[in-house]
Specification:
This is Nitronate monooxygenase. There is one protein chain. With about 325 residues, the protein is of the alpha/beta class. It has a domain of about 200 residues: Aldolase class I (TIM Barrel). Helix content is about 40%, strand content about 15%. Helix 2 runs parallel beside helix 3, helix 3 packs parallel to helix 4 and helix 8 packs across helix 14.
């Protein structure tokens, strides 16, 4: 049984399993491993310090796989924004055929990517934003539920509601993000109307993930309660791994702290050091509630194969047992 969907056909991959962009994590070795396993991986453009470095990372990924992969470009407001147009041009010049966009108002980027025949998958956290992206001309949607790592939006709608609500209205292919990590999740996402799953935290905890072994082991040790929501009072909610720093930020917010009061605690350079040196409390780092369902550190090949196999067994076995023919009922 092959799980072929509109999404796998759109991007030309074997399995409906995606590794989305992750700051400091979405590097060539992980992306290529996902691609070689039959899934779709995304290099994170802004993890690279310059557009030229991104070009080199794309070429490094090509040296590790002959299968399709993409690049994530996240557009966020910043005092000193990165040169998004230059990163975009690096993606185009490198011949990348699939891009994941995220963040605010990506219209100009979508337009440019589409001019060059690039498939655009836009990541969003609400039905209204998914519909806006569809009108914008993107090719597929990645809908992100409240369980996710990173920015879940401000509506607090979990995947069990958000995915079918979006599926009822979105006409283009849609994959489900936030809270996925095994075959049960994939089968559930397909049942809810999605055509694949996007995973971040689960792929962080693989052999090829370019983060410190101690952090992978921390993810395994954590449970579904091991996250904090920071920046709630600033209406820029972010779900991160619970640690000494996140608890401090939450406490300061309860006292009325502004961003300037926590800026040093949440600095990106500190978060990066978590992955580099393996100190869980060195800074803020993203992780989702799916931590409660992560119990090992497999290779990407092992993980993707297991997820697809489990989903197939659930669809053909467990769910099929609940279906009783009309003739049997009459008899």
């Amino acid at each position: 049984m092959a799980l072929k969907t509109r999404f796998t056909e759109l991007v030309g991959v074997e399995h409906p399993v995606v590794q989305g962009g992750m700051q400091w994590v979405g590097r060539a070795e992980l992306v290529a491993a996902v691609a070689n396993a039959g899934g779709l991986g995304f290099i994170t453009a802004l993890t690279q310090p310059t557009p030229q470095a991104l070009r080199e990372e794309i070429e490094r990924c090509r040296s590790l796989t002959t299968k399709p992969f993409g690049v994530n470009l996240t557009i966020l407001p910043a005092i000193n924004p990165p040169p998004y147009a230059e990163y975009r041009q690096a993606i185009i010049d490198s011949g990348v055929k699939i891009v994941e966009t995220a963040g605010n108002k990506p219209q100009e980027h979508v337009d440019e990517f589409k001019k060059h025949g690039i498939v655009v998958v836009h990541k969003c956290t609400s039905v209204r934003h998914a519909l806006s992206a569809e009108r914008m001309g993107v090719d597929a949607i990645s809908i992100d539920g409240f369980e996710c790592a990173g920015h879940p939006g401000e509506d607090d709608v979990p995947g069990l509601i958000l995915i079918p609500a979006a599926a009822d209205k979105v006409k283009i292919p849609m994959i489900a993000s936030g809270g996925f990590g095994d075959g049960r999740g994939l089968a559930a996402a397909l049942a809810l109307g999605a055509e694949g799953i996007n995973m971040g935290t689960r792929f962080m905890c693989t052999k090829e993930s370019p983060i410190h072994q101690a952090i992978k082991e921390q993810i395994v040790a954590n449970d579904e309660r091991s996250t904090d929501l920071i920046f709630r009072t600033m209406h820029n909610t972010s779900r991160v791994a619970k640690n000494a720093i996140s608890q401090q930020v939450v406490a300061l917010e309860k006292e009325g702290a502004k961003f300037e009061d926590v800026r040093e605690l949440v600095a990106g350079v500190r978060g990066r050091s978590v992955y580099e040196v393996g100190d869980n409390d060195a800074g803020i780092w993203s992780a989702g509630q799916i931590q409660g369902l992560i119990h090992d550190i497999p290779s990407c090949q092992e993980l993707v194969g297991r997820i697809v196999r489990e989903a197939e067994e659930i669809i053909q076995g467990r769910l099929a047992r609940f279906v009783t023919s009309r003739a049997a009922v009459v008899a």
